[in-house]
Specification:
Length: 351
């Protein structure tokens, strides 16, 4: 039986809290191959260098020159301009897929069918059907396929998940989240879980020719429960927060909500303060979880050092023989992709 150890610190990673893994297995040895030399791959590799069990074994790109430059920059011995050739190597245990979203299915299947574990950058797939095929391949080959929604591995989000697990804020009535469709829909799954299905969706969103989505969406879960999502252009100045509001309190993942270092918790003693006869706000507890200080990182992206949380969880879970991390497992991944698909189907786009 899976346990949920409430005696552990609030920010304890979910895989450890549930008794599925051991903290010492952060240093479990894994030899990584990297698909793609994108900016996100650069950030990931920089964080991976701080993971004690990780070895950077190879990198592949369609361009041999880019693969060579990436390898030289990051001290990687082998480089390829053929993804299929790279996964033939017996010196690779796991592949990080950092190529464009449109190639994720092809590249994940290539690695999975070669018997390699896979951590794939978000968005995992372009449809639920594609994702199901990818998870089926992982199961068939007895390897991990992990959807790379790094948000779920931040200590502040681990804390939020623990609070939701124990019902600290009561029944969830509202999720409000800002940023892009993927990050906000994973927040909906975090707050409402996978069993509650939306009864209706109202969307006013637009995707530009370069792929930026702005606008918003409203999910109606029935019985007065809603999710309100706002999609904001990355280039704008905005406050990015996720709030999960329940009958007994409120959890806030402070800006930047998709890679947060601060969680605030409001738990009124008996009734919401606005009905208590007092104008005083509800007591607020603030919890800060500073990101790791990694010397090699250039800090070009907010809290990019937080990739280390995800890397260490993957090492622990592979060591334990798991085929996914419980921070964001297959069921949550597929549910989030389903919500995301509903939003994308309702948006308008530039041709």
């Amino acid at each position: 039986m899976i346990k949920n150890d409430a005696s552990l610190p609030a920010q304890t990673p979910r895989d450890i809290r549930l008794g599925l893994t051991k903290a010492d297995d952060n240093s479990f040895p894994l030899r990584w191959g990297i698909f793609g030399t994108s900016t996100i791959s650069q950030y990931w590799v920089e964080a991976l260098k701080a993971c004690k069990g990780a070895t950077l074994a190879a990198v592949a790109s369609r361009s041999l020159e880019k693969a060579r430059d990436f390898a030289q920059t990051h001290g990687i011995e082998k480089f390829y301009n053929d993804y299929a050739e790279m996964v033939k190597s017996p010196d690779i245990d796991i592949v990080y897929v950092g190529t464009p979203d449109s190639l994720h299915k092809e590249h994940c299947l290539l690695a999975l069918n070669a018997g390699k574990h896979v951590l794939c950058e978000k968005d995992l797939a372009q449809s639920v059907t594609d994702a199901e095929e990818m998870y089926a391949a992982a199961k068939k080959n007895k390897v991990m396929l992990q959807d790379g929604v790094w948000t779920r591995f931040f200590p502040a989000v681990e804390h939020a998940r623990m609070l939701l697990d124990i019902g600290a804020i009561g029944d969830v009535l509202m999720v409000q989240s800002d940023l892009n469709p993927l990050y906000t829909t994973q927040a909906v799954t975090l707050g409402f879980g996978i069993k509650r299905k939306p009864l209706a969706l109202s969307t006013m969103a637009h995707t530009s020719a370069v792929g930026t989505t702005t606008g918003g969406a409203l999910f109606n879960f029935g019985d007065g429960a809603f999710a309100i999502l706002t999609f904001i252009h990355f280039a704008s100045e905005f406050r990015e927060v996720t709030e999960i509001i329940g009958t007994k309190g409120r959890i806030t993942l402070e800006d930047p909500g998709h890679c947060p270092t601060v969680l605030t918790l409001r738990l009124p003693d008996k009734v919401p303060h606005r009905y208590s006869g007092s104008n005083a706000p509800a007591p607020t507890q603030r919890f800060e979880y500073p990101i790791p200080e990694l010397v090699s990182m250039n800090n070009a992206y907010p809290n990019q050092q937080g990739f280390l949380y995800q890397a260490e969880a993957v090492h622990r879970c592979v060591a334990a023989g798991l085929n996914q991390c419980p921070q964001f497992d297959m069921d949550e991944s597929l549910h989030t992709l389903s919500l995301l698909g509903q939003i994308y189907a309702a948006r308008d786009t530039d041709k």
